[in-house]
Amino acid sequence: MQLVTAIIQPDKLDEVREELVVAGITRITTSRVTGHGQHQDQHDSERLYRGQKVMPNLLPKVRIDIACNDEFVDVAIEAILRSAKHGDGRIGDGKIFVTELKRCIRIRTDESGSQAI
Q: What digits encode the pLDDT tens for the residues 65-74?
């Protein structure tokens, strides 16, 4: 079992979700988060917010968590890569992290492991 976590641009959430559904992945969790990458354009750029110029430290992003069995990890990654990128790619399109999921338990039924996913 693996946990696929993607940090993407907020405007790409619907496209990513639709692509995941087409790929057969329907169980996802999303969160609104903020952050910035290492590139200068992500954290030092001046922006217009409510008519005023501001220098934001953190930018809005969306975090998607997908707990999946091993055979669906590459399927999930490919679906995210196809749909989260702006054109040929631009700074801030996001990142994908894959971590081992040691244990998963469905609270309702007490099932555990791959059955719980």
A: 999 999 999 9
